[in-house]
């Protein structure tokens, strides 16, 4: 009987140690530090938890890599949302919703163009952040403008079918701005 008790105690002790180590690793990633650009970027974004989930818990990316990844993720999100809006536009019979979806589609196409320009400029020049900031700020505004279109038509109340997509776009925009800010203030730029 003492053998089973020893195994249970040993097993419990091992579980506790593993759990403690995992908690310490996660806590170290969540605490801002000068050596962890991911944490710095995520803390400056609109939704740090979402940011950490999207980027994963790999703190070993340079500010340059984070900025580039943020642009790519925002571009993918904007493209997926634009495709979704195009489907809604094709499926709706309501003329007011068609107007709303057309505006939203325009906002997202402008955001896609800005993000593509920032991506192209960033890949080519690397250290020019103006277009990256502009693209990040526009991504944040595109989601806001689109969401407001659902309330714009007087006499009608439309529930937005794009709220989650718009929120995500705003967060991605804030991540781009935060990443570019960290990169522009970084003394060590690694590609």
TrEMBL record:
Give the family per the record: Belongs to the PMEI family.
Which residues belong to any copy of the Pectinesterase inhibitor domain? 33-179
Q: CDD domains of this UniProt entry?
A: PMEI
Superkingdom of this protein's organism: Eukaryota
Instruction: Please name the NCBIfam families in this protein's record.
Output: PME_inhib (TIGR01614)
What's the protein here called?
Answer: Pectinesterase inhibitor domain-containing protein
Keywords of the record, alphabetical order, are: Disulfide bond, Signal
Cited Pfam families:
PMEI (PF04043)
Q: Do you know which PANTHER family this protein is assigned to?
A: PECTINESTERASE INHIBITOR DOMAIN-CONTAINING PROTEIN (PTHR36710:SF10), PECTINESTERASE INHIBITOR-LIKE (PTHR36710)
Q: Where is the signal peptide?
A: 1-35
User: By which gene is this protein encoded?
Assistant: LOC107063363
A GO molecular function assigned to this protein is: pectinesterase inhibitor activity
């Amino acid at each position: 009987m003492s053998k089973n008790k020893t195994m249970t105690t040993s097993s419990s002790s091992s579980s506790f140690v593993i759990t403690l180590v995992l908690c310490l690793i996660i806590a170290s990633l969540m605490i801002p530090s000068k050596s962890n650009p991911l944490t710095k970027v995520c803390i400056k974004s609109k939704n740090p938890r979402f940011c950490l989930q999207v980027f994963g818990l790999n703190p070993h990316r340079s500010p340059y890599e984070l900025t580039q990844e943020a642009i790519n993720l925002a571009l993918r999100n904007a493209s997926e949302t634009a495709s979704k809006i195009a489907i809604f536009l094709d499926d709706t019979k309501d003329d007011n919703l068609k107007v709303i979806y057309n505006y939203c589609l325009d906002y997202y196409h402008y955001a896609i163009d800005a993000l593509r320009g920032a991506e192209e400029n960033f890949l080519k020049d690397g250290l020019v952040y103006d277009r990256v900031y502009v693209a990040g700020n526009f991504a944040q505004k595109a989601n806001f403008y689109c969401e407001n279109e659902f309330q714009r038509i007087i006499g009608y109340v439309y529930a937005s079918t794009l709220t989650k997509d718009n929120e995500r776009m705003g967060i991605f925009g804030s991540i781009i701005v935060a990443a570019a800010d960290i990169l522009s203030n970084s003394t060590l730029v690694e590609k």
